[in-house]
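Figure 6 in text form: structure in, sequence out.
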């Protein structure tokens, strides 16, 4: 069965995490009534088997005390109330553990496939829930057909298993009439619990079929069209003009940080006007020279202005500047193929710095060697 949206597009895409979160907030989680029925009945029958004798014993005490009256009780104005209080306590003691077991099972079974989900929106009034046409549509849908098949399957399987089991245990049930009352009640509780367990165990097969179907059906309902995925991505990441503004702000912040790093550079290699690359090298802490800033045109001009203001050496080497700008990234080391050319420039800059400090002869300006492939 093809799922199509109102726009006619087929729902072929798996639900996004946002779609799943929104669905859970609306109370749309996979649930299996068959799993709930199976666990409640199976654990209920196990509870009767293991706690049946305990409950029957307390019920027998409850009935004995309730129907036994002494002469003093008949003439006492408080005896009836005392017996009523005792009967309530005995009844709660008898069925309390069983009720607690059923409550825990009923609460925690839905967590197996859908997890916790409490939604006020799911409790809100919706007109389509009482709309006869919507009800007919649900009845004659694929899910309605599945529910009909499950009901027929449950009726058939449970009927056959119950008939066979009760027929095989007919002698035991008839024999209860020949036993003392207390023993008959205890054995009857055991037989009832065993019968209940055998019959309810047949629901395991139904639940094993229903749970995968409910998971599949839930996933099919939440599938999205390509357009829905695009719209959600647009809403999540923002409108194009907003994203453009954010990118602009991010670029401005990155440029500001980059300009703040220019005064820490050892040399600025330029084109001389179109490109500018600021390099820093500390032979004690760095394996290779680091690019601290670079840019072209107006940004290159700004880098040169900051460098001149702080007295950073500017070295004109157009092929090397273009190669560095094309192959390097900010805060990354230069590529190995440019090691020799950059080493010539840095050696000249360091020698020039020493010569100026000591007043010695100015070193000869080098012509950095560039590999043939980097010059192209």
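Output sequence:
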């Amino acid at each position: 069965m093809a799922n199509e949206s109102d726009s006619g597009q087929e729902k072929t895409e798996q639900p996004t995490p946002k779609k799943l979160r929104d669905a859970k907030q609306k109370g749309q989680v996979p649930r299996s009534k068959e799993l709930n029925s199976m666990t409640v009945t199976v654990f209920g029958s196990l509870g009767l088997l293991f706690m049946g004798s305990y409950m029957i014993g307390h019920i027998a005490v409850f009935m004995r005390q309730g129907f036994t009256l002494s002469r003093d009780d008949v003439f006492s104005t408080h005896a009836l109330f005392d017996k009523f209080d005792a009967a309530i306590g005995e009844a709660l003691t008898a069925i309390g553990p069983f009720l607690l077991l059923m409550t825990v099972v009923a609460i925690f079974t839905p967590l197996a496939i859908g997890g916790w989900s409490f939604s006020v929106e799911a409790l809100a009034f919706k007109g389509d829930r009482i709309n006869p046409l919507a009800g007919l549509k649900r009845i004659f849908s694929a899910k309605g057909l599945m529910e009909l098949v499950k009901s027929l399957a449950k009726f058939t399987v449970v009927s056959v298993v119950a008939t066979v089991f009760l027929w095989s245990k007919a002698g035991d049930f008839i024999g209860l009439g020949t036993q003392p009352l207390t023993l008959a009640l205890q054995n009857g509780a055991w037989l009832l619990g065993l019968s209940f367990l055998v019959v309810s165990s047949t629901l395991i097969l139904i639940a094993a079929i229903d749970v995968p179907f409910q998971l599949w059906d839930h996933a099919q309902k939440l599938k999205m069209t390509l357009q829905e995925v695009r719209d959600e991505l647009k809403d999540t990441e923002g409108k194009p003009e907003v994203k453009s503004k954010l990118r602009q702000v991010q670029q401005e912040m990155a440029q500001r940080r980059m300009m703040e790093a220019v005064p820490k550079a050892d040399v600025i290699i330029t084109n001389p006007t179109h490109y500018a690359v600021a390099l820093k090298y500390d032979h004690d802490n760095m394996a290779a020279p680091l690019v601290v800033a670079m840019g072209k045109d107006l940004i290159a001009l700004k880098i040169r202005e900051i460098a001149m203001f702080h007295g950073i050496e500017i070295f004109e080497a157009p092929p090397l500047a273009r190669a560095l700008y094309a192959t390097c990234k900010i805060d990354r080391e230069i590529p190995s193929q440019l090691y020799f050319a950059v080493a010539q420039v840095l050696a000249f800059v360091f020698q020039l710095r020493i010569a100026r400090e000591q007043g010695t002869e100015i070193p000869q300006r080098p012509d950095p060697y560039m590999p043939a492939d980097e010059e192209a």
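Caption detail: DSSP finds 16 helices and four strands in the chain.
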